[in-house]
Design brief:
The protein has 399 residues and is an alpha/beta fold. The chain has one domain: Rossmann fold. Helices cover 41% and strands 17% of the residues. Helix 1 packs across helix 3 and helix 5 packs across helix 7. The longest helix is centred in the middle third of the chain and has 19 residues. The protein is globular.
């Protein structure tokens, strides 16, 4: 099969196995070039196949020599369609890890379900004994509650009043005006149920009950708050309510974890291109401006650079850097640096379709989007006929 990108709206329906593998290798090589870290020994990453979750697994393994179990929900290939990018990422990660003598096993299934939690616990008990770091990095638009069977669908909407602003179609290179109606109370509740801390708490409580948490265990969930410019649609919208719930869950989990001298934290990360961020109005234009300014300043970071910094400067430093007054780890510090935000605010009103390509890094935005799916990777022949069926070496079959 010759695999090319197929874009529908803000979704790419194909992924390239060789491109995904090369992108994973680039992240591994970055971590190895930085040097070894003090770090955890046995790590569970919930949401391990893309973005910050994948970066966490790479840093834990190749930076701290940790054993890792990854949980994700990805689609494998068949003779007619490619696998999802997360499937190819995980296959490549496991292959590189196993080749270099590291323990790495994966579970593919619905992390929200009780069955996957139980299966993961069994694997931890059998292979690792206890876990000393749990990363929670799920990004799903939908959740089925494990006890009630209720289905929750998240909504990316403002609260209280409609929102009107600018956004872009990055693939057509067009600036557009957008208006979004406010969320209903039910949509707010549903978004909190999907993207808040309820499932994180279920995971930690279950693993603690099963006696699988090591003394001094750490657990980190990833979040994003963003600048004032995006607050109407993000921090003050339905997603923001979910992120508030995530932080409240961390505070609650700190009480739960006292029995094992553990700690729960929320890390606020920098804006990066993801499938989720591509779907949020305003955010793609903001990211395109942000990239241009941060690249010019030499402060631009992707997922892997931030997560290496998280491990090195916060989680396992002999003298960890300070958190903010609310207790958040702020990996978005370079993004929110005043001169960066002032430059974005000054440029915002001037951006039109005519100057989009010169005044923003919309090309960098597009490139990062394609890279999520294994495209636009240097050194990959996209005219080559490749087999889309790739096995994940140590995949534990879901029951």
């Amino acid at each position: 099969m010759i695999i090319q990108p197929k874009i529908r709206g803000f979704i790419c329906t194909t992924a390239h196995p060789n491109g995904c593998a090369k992108a994973v290798l680039e992240q591994i090589n970055y971590v190895k070039a930085q040097g070894k870290l003090n770090g955890p020994k046995n790590v569970l990453v919930i949401g391990a196949s893309t973005g910050y979750g994948l970066a966490s697994r790479i840093v834990a393994t190749f930076g701290a020599d940790a054993k890792t179990i990854g949980v994700f929900y990805e689609k494998e290939a068949d003779e007619k369609r490619t696998a999802s990018a997360g499937w190819y990422n995980s296959a490549a990660f496991e292959r590189y890890a196993l080749e270099q003598g590291y323990y790495a096993k994966s579970i593919n299934g619905d992390a929200f379900s009780s069955e996957i939690k139980k299966q993961t616990a069994e694997l931890i008990r059998k292979d690792l004994g206890k876990i000393d770091l749990i990363i929670y990095s799920l990004a799903s638009p939908r959740r089925i509650h494990p006890d009630t069977g209720e289905v929750f669908n998240s909504a990316l909407k403002p609260i209280g009043e409609s929102f009107s602003g600018k956004t872009i179609d990055a693939f057509k290179g067009e600036v557009k005006d957008v208006t979004i109606e406010p969320a209903t109370e039910q949509e707010i509740k549903n978004t909190i149920a999907v993207m808040g801390g309820d499932d994180w708490e279920l995971w930690i409580s279950y693993l603690n009950k099963e006696g699988l948490l090591a003394s001094g265990v750490k657990t980190v969930a990833y979040s994003y708050l963003g600048p004032v410019l995006t607050h109407s649609i993000y921090k003050n919208g339905t997603i923001g309510k979910a992120k508030e719930h995530l932080k409240a869950t961390a505070d609650k989990l700190n009480d739960t974890l006292k029995s094992v001298n553990g700690e729960a934290m929320v890390s606020v990360d920098k804006a990066v291109v993801t499938q989720a961020s591509a779907a949020i109005p305003v955010v793609p234009l903001y990211i395109a401006l942000l990239f241009k300014i941060m690249k010019a300043k030499g402060t631009h970071e992707g997922c892997i650079e931030q997560i290496y910094r998280l491990f090195k400067d916060y989680l396992y430093a002999s003298k960890p850097l300070s958190r903010d007054e609310e207790g958040y780890i702020r990996l978005d510090d370079l993004e929110l640096e005043p001169s960066v935000q002032q430059a974005i605010t000054s440029a915002w009103s001037t951006i039109t379709t005519d100057n989009l390509s010169t005044e923003t890094d919309v090309e960098g935005y597009r490139n990062d989007f394609y890279r999520l799916f294994g495209f636009n990777i240097d050194g990959v022949d996209y005219e080559q006929d490749v087999n889309p069926v790739v096995e994940i070496p140590s995949l534990v079959e879901s029951k």
